[in-house]
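Review form for a predicted model. The reviewer records the input and the model, then writes brief findings.
Reviewer: anonymous (R2)
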Amino acid sequence: MLKKQTVWLLTMLSLIVVLSVYALTAPPSGSPANQAKPQGQVTTGKNGVAVTTTAAENKLGQIELDKADARSQQQKKYESVIASPKSTAEQASAAYDSMESMQTLANAEMMLEDVIQSKGYKNAVVKTDGSQVQVYVDTKSLTDQQANGIIQLANEYLGAGRVVSVSYNLGSK
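Model under review:
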């Protein structure tokens, strides 16, 4: 009878052999078959349909994820202050108010993103940090008038008195 250790070792060795054969027989990454792919990253979506994402979409998605992670951590911090028996009523109230204002700001950012997209831009992400507002727009070029229009929209939806900057052409950076 073979020991478990021996079976495990033989299984790992056969796996290494199979992977080595695959690595040797796979076409190199610079082959013509791989160069015909679209410029973006291809992933399989629902129902087996191939979806192509561009570098700009990837960057906007990463910015959105970073923003959501930061908000989630901040919300957990506020919730722990509210739930803590050591917190005073004033601290709990301040944490609740901060949590509410954070949610209001998130809703305003989402509305602004929707309005910017309705103006004809493929995608947009708005990121607010204190008095700084960064608007990322998925477009190759942006005129001064278009950027000024986006800044005016940001002031309208997020309130005046914030420093607003607009970034575009995210695929080349």
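Findings: The longest helix spans residues 89-118.
Further findings: The chain is about 60% helix and 15% strand.
Recommendation: see findings above.
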